[in-house]
Every structure is written in C-alpha cells, then in structure tokens.
Specification:
Layout: E1 6-10, E2 20-27, E3 33-37, E4 44-48, E5 54-56, E6 63-67, E7 72-78, E8 97-99, H1 100-104, H2 106-116, H3 121-138, H4 144-152, H5 161-167, H6 172-182, H7 187-205, H8 217-224, H9 230-241, H10 245-248, H11 263-271
Antiparallel strand pairs: 1-2, 2-7, 3-6, 4-5, 4-7, 5-8
Helix pairs in contact: 2-3, 7-11
Length: 280
C-alpha cells in the first residue's frame, strides 16, 4: 500500500451550500491506498470515474476501504440531516454502502454515462453537483426541526438533549425518532460525532486553544469542544476512528499533519463557533 497521490477538497456549488458540507476529488497512484472513513454525522456519495457510484450511510465507527491503484473518485459529503433522494429512512442505512443504482434506478445509470464522458474529474464533479441541484429543487428533503437540532448540537456550546427537545416543542422520544429518520443516529450519538468533528476541524486548521480552565495544547482543544479532558478525547477518538489522536493526525497530537488541504471542510464548520448558545 502507498500514499494517496492527491486529495483536494472544495466548497460545494452555492446552491448546495445548505445541504452539502464539502466536495472532493481523490486520486490514487501506482499502488492501492487504504482509506479510513470516519463518522461525520452525514452521508456521502463516492463516485469512482468509470465505476459504480455508492452512497455511504451514516457511520458510527471507522470504515476501512482499499481503493485500487490509478483510481479517481469524486465525492460529496452531506450535512447531517440532509441527504439525496432515496426510498429509505437513514437509520436503515447506518454503517452501510449502497449502490446508487439501487436508490436512483435509471437516473444513476444516466449519471454514470455523463460522468464517464465528462473528460476531467473537475467537470465530473461539477456534473454530479448539477444533478444534485436538480434533485433538491424537485422536492423537500430536510426536516426543519432536525436542522435546528443539528445547529444546536454543534460542539461549541454543549446542550442537554432533553432541554433541546423541549425547546423544539417535542418530547425526547419524538426528537429521537425524527433524528433517526433524518440523520440516521440518535441526538446523543450525533452530538458525540459533531464534538469529535469539532476537534478535527480545530486540528486541521492549526487552531490554538482558548486557554479555558488553564488548559493548552491538545488538552485545551479537547476542552474547547466539550470534552472533560484529554483522556476523554483519546477514548472517543479510539471509539470513532480506531486510532489514537496522535496516529490519526499523522504524528502531531494537536494539529493535522496529513499534508492535505481541508479548509473547504473545516472553515464553515468552525464558522459556527461564533453563533450564540441556544437558550433552552
């Protein structure tokens, strides 16, 4: 196995900004590449050029994929609580991969033909996003109360799940049911996932901790996103990724050393830090 040849993240087209977190192009070199997919709270579309596209359901732990040599994949990572059209609720798709042909039928076949003939990965990615724009214009795929819950569960201002349900004029069981249908996981699991994503965003951005409680370095970053301490972060990292923070980040414990540009993914995520806490 060898290093990935290239990985480029980009912001989505403006019309998808409310439902898509980031898009990307990944290329492997002369050897196969072992990819570790991590829980993000959302679903993803993985579209190998010349191959069969798949939808990756919400993950609750790491998924290891061996990508063949000389493969180019364009991908779309959706925000939690949003997803492309499909004949299933998301809790049926947790930790699963499904062929887009099973979900979209002939529409997926036509898209495969268009992507193969696009000429370049950049054009293929634009074509995939244009297809998604058409799909989202045709129907409503977002539960507004779940969207509000997702915003409240961002890691910067911890919120009690029962209090959140009351704020949304729902019972705790109703909030759980709607989250399972629209996100695939319970509010508590989503909160834990977003908290870890917050840590990754800070590490990828090379951010410094706020210094709250006198903590600095990785311990400070852990506190900033709601962990009790660095040990709490380490336990959650092992559970969600199968690796320690140091191994996951490429040797550094408080910043990402993978060498890839992730700003298209972490910049909008970190922008939610400035929102005031939810009054519940």
């Amino acid at each position: 196995m060898a290093a990935m040849d290239s990985y480029i993240e980009r912001p989505p087209l403006p019309g998808l900004a409310g439902v898509v977190r980031t898009v990307w192009i990944q290329r492997t070199g002369a050897a196969a590449y072992v990819q570790r997919h991590l829980p993000t709270g959302g679903v993803e579309i993985h579209f190998p050029i010349g191959g069969r596209p798949q939808l990756v359901g919400p993950l609750t732990g790491p998924e290891i994929e061996v990508i063949p040599p000389h493969t180019t994949i364009v991908g779309v990572r959706f925000q939690p609580g949003t997803a492309p059209p499909m004949p299933a609720v998301l809790d049926d798709l947790v930790d699963q991969r499904l062929s887009l042909a099973e979900l979209w039928g002939r529409s997926a076949d036509r898209l495969v033909e268009a992507m193969t003939g696009a000429g370049t990965p950049e054009r293929a990615l634009t074509g995939l996003q244009a297809h998604l724009l058409q799909e989202f214009r045709g129907a409503t795929h977002v539960d507004p109360l779940v969207s509000e819950a997702v915003r409240a569960l961002m890691p910067w201002h911890p919120v009690n799940i029962d209090a959140l349900a009351t704020h949304l004029a729902l019972s705790a069981s109703q909030l759980r049911r709607r989250c399972l249908q629209a996100v695939g996981v319970s509010p508590k699991v989503l909160q834990r996932t977003l908290r870890f994503q917050g840590f990754l965003a800070l590490a990828q951005a090379g951010a410094r901790s706020s210094g709250r409680r006198g903590a600095d370095g990785v311990a400070g970053l852990a506190v900033d996103v709601g962990y009790a301490d660095q040990a709490h972060l380490s336990r959650e990292c092992l559970r969600l990724t199968g690796l320690t923070p140091r191994r996951l980040l490429g040797g550094a414990i408080d910043r990402c050393a993978c060498g890839h540009e992730h700003s298209a993914s972490y910049t909008p995520f970190l922008a939610t830090r400035s929102r005031p806490p939810l009054r519940v």
